[in-house]
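Sample pair:
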Amino acid sequence: MEINNYKFEKISSVMGNEFGKIRKGDEEEHTHLLFAMESNLLKLYRFNDKRDDYSAIKAIKICLFTIDGYLNDIKYNLDKFLDDNNKDFVNGLLWVFDPFVNEVIKDSICENIDLNNKSDLRKYFENPVKCLLRIEKSIELWTKEFGPVGYFKFLEDQVGNAIAHDDTMDYLVELGM
């Protein structure tokens, strides 16, 4: 299915209405998943600092469409939104939680979750969607505050010393839904 610019820009609000959002200050119960996602984003930014906050926001939207596609059996054509600056961000984010991208996650959750059951999938993807939306809001805030790489400057200052300087992508297996 072809996606136009309007639908691309609206996906965050659509998914926020469907899954809910993490309010500022309520991140505590999502710390591990948020950290894994932000860790991968920062590692990828360090590897290529031509990537900016806008590239990360586009990557989040692509991830949201990917999840929506799984839940609704739709294959979205997102090629016109993918580019060299966001493609790795997309893969790094999906690697954290997506059992269709990361075989380790798939093997770990298959006993607890039926990946062919839409209700199980919806429940499974609820936290990742909320975390993606929270990170998007954070990126918007820090971009306004500090410019086109403000979010990455913020991450580096806040948690940079806790994130390895390597290209190993983190992931998280959440078994309890």
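The mean pLDDT is 95.
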